[in-house]
Design a protein that fits this description.
The protein has a domain at 42-409: 7 Propeller (Methylamine Dehydrogenase, Chain H). The chain contains no helices and 58 strands. The strands form 14 sheets. Strands 1-11-10-9-8 form a 5-stranded antiparallel sheet, with no helix packed on it. Strands 2-3-58-57-56 form a 5-stranded antiparallel sheet, with no helix packed on it. It has a 5-stranded mixed sheet with strand order 28-32-31-30-29, with no helix packed on it. The protein starts with 9 loop residues before the first strand and ends with a strand.
């Protein structure tokens, strides 16, 4: 497995891969050939940067805050994922802080990776490629990056020196400016950089080449000190004379250079964003004269409540004076793009004439009649070979236009959902229902197209916390989550349409947790956990949510699990005490059964084997896998795996009597996605080194109707599904 300290060539793979035998070891067998693809939703996450190559038509790259990097394929009209090879131990590298291309060597591309700069996160790394991201070499950094932290839409922070392609610069959040003289193979701090980090986590916000001069934005000024610096020789840095100051120019967000007009445009805000901006400005520097001009399209706050900052900026490579900028965090009037053809003297709002078509990704309406033009617009790029091909990123997608009027998602191939719930029904039209952060619950009527019904509505959830089905009545499904108009809903048609629970417990708006429906759907058990981790008692309803009663004996904050056969039996695992609880009165009361189970485990899951009464499996990150066949009275450790992060079931293999088991875990010394056809006596790994997707420990489930098909939740690469080939 590709560990955090390994260096060398990493070869990217196609979506179809035939696996060789796993390393020799107990409980492993020759792996089958699997094909892995995304369940299509389309985007669903924050696109933080887009970069067209300046000298190659149709070549572009995109970065995301938690879901890796992509390359645009103009002929196919879709994006290709470039970082799916990053494995479990490298989950923190799925966030892309910055991208750089070499204008002179078009096959070269560089990625600065690192999702979090917290103490518990690993250090960042730089990947370099000579073949447009097909293969990579890696250099581990001694510092941390923060692609999913405040300021993640600024930049770019990584730059190839225009005077020497072997020299690269990297702006960091906490460690100043770094420099490489060997094309990113090694890095050293730039001691001459004139300012030192203060701990805010912003540091260098952008790097841009202005001819042969390098400019660096600094995000830690108080608004009165300099925040834009430059160097002509790569050694001595100076504050740029005459630069704007004040709250509206506190943080330089992005910059773009019009080389024909010799003008540098810089967008500013009072905070790094994407949240928290209330003021901002746009300024133009005439490089020859050194004169600065305020070219702000609309002053934030000019209208009551209309506060925002400025974000992206792009210039037309062939038409001097043509520039586009974006607003950011503008909630009252909704964010827009402003375009000027006279160097910022006059501006036109492109939103005002925009025609949006989101039919390819209907979830973008968020339950409303029309989609919004955008929010969190900091990624903005203009095709250097087509002045009317403009793209911009939002918190959920990437919009593009070819005529500056008609806009549609240009997102094919990008899947960034952070998935937390998966349910594969045994019957009905849809083979999959999913629950994710930010986009709630989806009904996947086709795996190869974004769900036609969009987000589950009535009510719409921002993020899902629970999704469950009555095992003996599969048309009955329930869901829970964070919503403005209710936190729980039920469906009588397998998840196609929904109705809110008639009532809900008072805890629901602040602490909606997971939910279970008993085997025949006659009882619901809802657990409550606040976002800060505070756990509460569960509530039961025996009348489809009309009334709710507290269950004091239910372990606080536990995940309820229904027995798939007996309607009177439900289970709950108290991880703090290491005790499995059971109810034999349809959730009205719970009593302790098995004790001395793993306690305090940072990750666990209890799953009931389909069609079998009392057949329970407990997967734990630190303590392995356990099974009970007597309804949780006793458990036995399953010795065929060392760690089990999540576990689910699918259709049994031909001739087998027990359902196929899928789990993400460690068998021998290899962490991966596994399948067992013999009740966990042995495992075969079904993913490979090119299909790892970072952290995949949230949930996994097989398809009860198709042997070998498995659905896997990722944290930033959407839903992956694998099939035998």
């Amino acid at each position: 497995m590709f560990g955090p300290s390994r260096r060398g060539v990493l070869v990217g793979g196609a979506a179809v891969a035939a696996l060789s035998a796993l390393p020799a070891g107990p409980a492993q067998a020759v792996a089958p050939s699997y094909r892995w693809r995304n369940v299509v939703v389309g985007g669903t996450g924050f696109v933080t940067g887009v970069l067209f190559h300046p000298s190659v038509r149709g070549l572009a790259y995109a970065r995301t805050d938690i879901g890796g990097a992509y390359r645009w394929d103009e002929r196919q009209g879709r994006w290709s994922a470039l970082t799916d090879f990053l494995g479990w131990d490298d989950w923190n590298l799925l966030g892309v802080e910055s991208i750089a291309v070499d204008p002179v060597h078009p096959d070269r591309v560089y990625l600065a990776l690192g999702t979090y700069a917290q103490e518990w996160a690993s250090n960042g790394a730089v990947l370099r490629s000579d073949d447009r991201g097909v293969s990579w070499r890696r250099a581990d950094l001694g510092v941390k990056l923060g692609a999913n932290e405040d300021g993640r839409g600024t930049g770019e922070r990584l730059l190839v020196d225009p005077r020497d392609s072997d020299v690269l610069w990297l702006g960091t959040r906490h460690d100043g400016l770094l420099k490489s003289v060997d094309r990113g193979a090694s890095w050293e701090a730039v001691g001459q950089f004139p300012v030192a980090p203060s701990g805010s986590g912003q540091g260098v916000t952008l790097l841009v080449a202005v001819g042969r001069v390098l400019y660096a934005g600094w995000g830690e000024s108080d608004g009165s000190a300099a925040n834009l610096y430059r160097t002509g020789d790569g050694v001595a840095w100076e504050a740029v004379p005459g630069q704007p100051s004040g709250v509206a120019a506190k943080v330089p967000i992005r910059a773009a250079y019009d080389r024909h007009a010799r003008q540098l445009y810089v967008t500013y805000a009072d905070a790094p964003g994407p949240n928290g901006q209330a003021d901002g400005s746009v300024h133009r520097l005439d490089v020859g004269s050194g004169r600065w001009t305020d070219v702000t399209p609309v002053v934030p706050g000019a209208s009551a409540g209309d506060t925002f900052g400025y974000g992206g900026v792009a210039v037309d490579a062939r038409r001097p004076g043509t520039v586009v900028v974006s607003t950011n965090n503008r909630w009252a009037a909704v964010d827009t793009l402003y375009r000027s053809t006279d160097a910022g003297r006059r501006w036109t709002s492109l939103k005002d004439s925009a025609v949006l078509d989101v039919s390819e990704t209907p979830y973008l309406t968020w339950g409303a009649e029309q989609a919004k033009f955008g929010w969190w617009i900091q990624a903005l790029a203009l095709d250097p070979f087509d002045a009317r091909h403009l793209v911009y990123g939002t918190g959920a997608t990437l919009f593009g236009t070819r005529d500056l009027r008609h806009w549609a998602p240009q997102i094919r191939g990008v899947e960034e959902a952070s998935v937390v719930q998966l349910l594969s029904p045994p019957s009905g039209q849809a083979h999959l229902l999913s629950g994710s952060r930010d986009i709630g619950v989806l009904y996947h009527d086709r795996l190869g197209a974004s769900p036609a019904r969009g987000m589950a509505s009535n009510p719409v959830f921002g993020s899902a916390t629970g999704l469950a089905q009555a095992a003996r009545r599969p048309a009955y499904v329930v869901r829970t989550g964070w919503g403005d108009h209710g936190n729980g809903a039920y469906s009588e048609d397998g998840g196609r349409t929904w109705a809110p629970f008639p009532t809900q417990p008072a805890l629901a708006p602040d602490a909606p947790g997971p939910i279970a429906a008993n085997a025949d759907g006659s009882a619901l058990l809802w657990s409550f956990v606040h976002w800060d981790g505070t756990k509460y008692a569960g509530y039961r309803s025996g009348d489809n949510g009309l009334t709710w009663d507290e269950v004091p004996s239910f372990p606080k904050g536990a995940v309820p699990v229904a027995d798939p056969v007996r309607a009177d039996v439900l289970y709950a695992y108290d991880t703090d005490a290491g005790v499995l609880y059971a109810s034999t009165d349809s959730g009205r009361s719970f009593v302790a059964r098995a004790g001395q189970l793993p306690s305090g485990d940072s990750q666990f899951k209890v799953v009931a084997a389909p069609g079998r009464a009392g057949d329970l499996w407990v997967s734990t990150k630190e303590n392995g896998l356990y099974r009970s066949i007597d309804g949780g009275v006793t458990f036995a450790e399953v010795g065929s795996c060392r760690a089990s992060y999540t576990l689910g079931f699918g259709k049994a293999a031909p001739g087998a009597r027990y359902p196929a088991i899928y789990h993400v875990g460690t068998v021998g010394d290899v962490t991966g996605v596994y399948r067992s056809d013999d009740a966990a006596k042995s495992w075969v790994r079904i993913n490979d080194e090119q299909h790892q997707w970072g952290w995949t420990g949230e949930t996994v489930t097989g398809d009860p109707r198709i042997y070998g098909r498995v659905y896997l939740a990722t944290n930033g690469r959407g839903i992956q599904y694998g099939e035998l080939i």
